[in-house]
Here is the input.
Amino acid sequence: MPQLPLTLVVMTHNEAAVIGRCLDSVPFAAEKLVVDCGSTDATLEVARAHGARVVHQDWLGFGPQRNFGTTQASHPWILVLDADEFLSPELAGELAQRLPQVMASEAAVGILRRRTLYMGAPMRWYRPMVGEKLARLYHRDRARWRDVRVHESLTWDGPQASFKAPFEHENNPTLVHKGLKVLRYAELKARDWQQKGRKPRMWDCALVFVTTFFKDYVLRLAMFDGWRGFAVSQTNASYAVYKRMRYYEMCRNPASVAMAGDVLIRHGLDR
Here is the structure.
């Protein structure tokens, strides 16, 4: 497959098991860049063996880390994937065919569809895991990642292009992985709220649980994915409540921030 003047950027931390698959799924990228924040497994060796250039950057938070990666790319057009994501052969072919025209245009971003594997199989109905639309392809002079610790997204100025074929996401291989991610993401979100001076709102926890579960299970069609749909809806509703409880604890007992931070670092959930 002919190479295109585009940089694939992947952020890593102990991703040796999946980084090779991710890098190999983008054969048309002229450059593959891995931004690592201190892996202690074989991530760096595997990445280099699969053709990537590796740079180190201490963890800055999801948005700032992605913006740092943007500055390190050799090409203005950038494709971002997480280490546990990979292009389907269909999307790789579509991108290779359409990218020259998109890159020659005034487009700022490309919108890709993400399909998620959950509990070992693709979700078939739950909307966010079937065809979630994400801006993952962009021109670095026309788009920038929001400077937030978690749940980062691109902001851009200019037209967008859309692609039909999906890329794949092996989302949390087990519920144990998901539970650990919930702990980490909730901590980061609570720190963002603390930095912004948001007032804790424990009174709305019950309503938040019910509305989040209903939105996912009914409105987003998770109920048609059987018990897997129930599991993902319950997990998301619990996360919505837990991050509020954790933020309340931070405000009521500020010493808990450092105490929890030490535990998360000890277990590899913070950096």
In short: The longest helix spans residues 226-252. The mean pLDDT is 95. The two ends are 38 Å apart (CA to CA).
